[in-house]
Write a structure and sequence with these properties.
Number of strands: 11
Number of helices: 14
Number of domains: 2
EC number: 4.2.3.4
CATH architecture of the largest domain: Up-down Bundle
Largest sheet: 7 strands, mixed
Strand content: 15-25%
Main location: cytoplasm
CATH superfamily of the largest domain: Dehydroquinate synthase-like - alpha domain
Bound molecules: nicotinamide-adenine-dinucleotide, the ligand O=C(O)C(=O)C[C@@H](O)[C@H](O)[C@H](O)COP(=O)(O)O, zinc ion
Helix content: 40-55%
Domain 3-dehydroquinate synthase N-terminal: 70-181
Keywords: Amino-acid biosynthesis, Aromatic amino acid biosynthesis, Cobalt, Cytoplasm, Lyase, Metal-binding, NAD, Nucleotide-binding, Zinc
CATH topology of the largest domain: Dehydroquinate synthase-like, alpha domain
Strand order of the largest sheet: 1-2-9-6-5-3-4
Protein name: 3-dehydroquinate synthase
């Protein structure tokens, strides 16, 4: 069964979620307007799936010129250098404005390839083909694309909506356990910020999710995408409510940056960050300590970390937060929590409070 989530707004697109979607060459090729299709993937995903996608596209449209380009796996590939390399490859490929980039991989590939598509000739089509749970529930949807700098996460980027998203759940069978758990952190985020019943559902289905039960995973993906779609179609450029999707991220990005993008992965950092944000909310009188305990217990049960890694300098973490994209006029803004299903953006949070919330 293929589940569909439609994302409305000024440039609507469809998210398809189902087993085997990467072999549907006709569906993939229907989004290519010209003759050039560049499949961007990483060193783990390329040998597993890239040839299949290229063959499926080619079979559906024999006139298409397909190329596969492979980046190293991992967050450190989300760099300006790799971005420049992709642009040079698009040039060498002769990609014209009707070319299409297929981002086949996790959030790293999606963000990097999406950013190259956003910039090449001021914007060409991009189709997201997420192969991690995190990319299926979050990064492939909504059009945020970016690369990191040593000074901070996602500091250089653009909003560039995908033409379509195909989440082939069969690819999750090869995903390492650690990456599956990372994706579950962003799933928990949706329950935490806007759907108390979904948070209950995740608690009830935690074992099935960890055991990769296919229907349970597909339901988690579809419900997560529906939440993200509802927000990003109303606020595509994060002028307001989209910031709620950043719950836990001010802490998470500071940790990832301070670890040089080689420590916790994004989902793990978000798990820690959400607990810090919940603690901060309790300190500021918005949440009760019991809610923080409940959130931490669920994340632990899902195999995720909930404590700031030992050895990180708290002052350095707060210094990174000053470059958080939600900060305004030199003051920190946080997504804070008032318990299951309820979050809000709070301006002017004192750095001393953020420091104390690190635990
Ligand atoms: N744009 C957004 O809205 C948004 C949202 C959330 C996260 N992100 C970004 O996404 C990135 C994290 O994405 P991620 O968690 O997918 O990490 P990732 O892209 O690094 O993938 C995780 C690992 O899994 C491997 N992998 C991917 N699919 C596989 C498969 N099917 N089988 C086997 N191995 C596979 C990858 O090679 C990599 O080693 C971060 O950079 C984060 O900032 C962006
Ligand atoms: O789509 C969004 O908006 C999000 O904030 C989703 C986050 O999970 C994601 O990690 C995003 O890349 C963070 O964006 P940033 O603007 O804080 O860099
Ligand atoms: Zn995130």
């Amino acid at each position: 069964m293929t589940r569909i989530v439609d994302v409305g707004g000024h440039a609507p697109y469809r998210i398809a979620i189902g087993d085997g979607l990467l072999s549907d060459g006709a569906a993939l090729a229907s989004h290519v307007r010209g003759r050039h299709a560049m499949i961007v993937s990483d060193a783990h995903v390329t040998p597993l799936y890239a040839r299949g996608v290229a063959d499926a596209l080619q079979a559906a449209n024999p006139g298409l010129r397909c190329m596969v380009t492979c980046i190293p796996a991992g967050e450190s590939a989300k760099s300006l250098d790799r971005f420049a390399e992709l642009l040079r490859e698009l040039a060498d490929f002769g990609a014209t404005r009707d070319a299409c980039v297929f981002a086949l991989g996790g959030g790293v590939v999606g963000d990097l390839a999406g950013f190259a598509a956003a910039c090449w000739m001021r914007g060409i089509d991009c189709v997201q083909l997420p192969t991690t749970l995190l990319a299926m529930v979050d990064s492939s949807v909504g059009g945020k694309t970016a690369v990191d700098l040593p000074q901070g996460k996602n500091l250089v980027g653009a909003f560039h909506l995908p033409r379509a998203v195909f989440a082939d759940t069969a690819t999750l069978r090869t995903l390492p356990d650690r990456e599956l758990r990372a994706g579950l952190a962003e799933v928990v985020k949706y329950g935490a910020i806007r759907d108390a019943a979904f948070l209950d559902w995740i608690e009830t289905h935690a074992d099935a999710l960890l055991a990769r039960d296919a229907d349970t995973l597909a339901e988690a993906i579809a419900r997560s995408c529906a939440h993200k779609a509802a927000i990003v179609e109303r606020d595509p450029f994060e002028r307001g409510e989209r910031a709620l999707l950043n719950f836990g991220h001010t802490f998470a990005h500071a940790i990832e940056t301070e670890q040089g993008y080689g420590g916790l992965n994004h989902g793990e950092a978000v798990a820690v960050g959400m607990v810090c944000a919940a603690r901060l909310s309790a300190r500021l009188g918005m949440a009760v300590a019991d809610d923080t305990q409940r959130l931490a217990a669920l994340l632990r049960r899902l195999g995720l970390p909930v404590d700031v890694p030992a050895g990180l300098d708290p002052a350095a973490l707060v210094a990174h937060m000053r470059l958080d994209k939600k900060a305004i006029a030199g003051r920190l803004r946080f997504v804070l929590w008032s318990g299951a299903g309820a979050a809000q953006v709070v301006p002017d949070v004192a750095e001393a409070e953020a420091l104390a919330a690190l635990g």
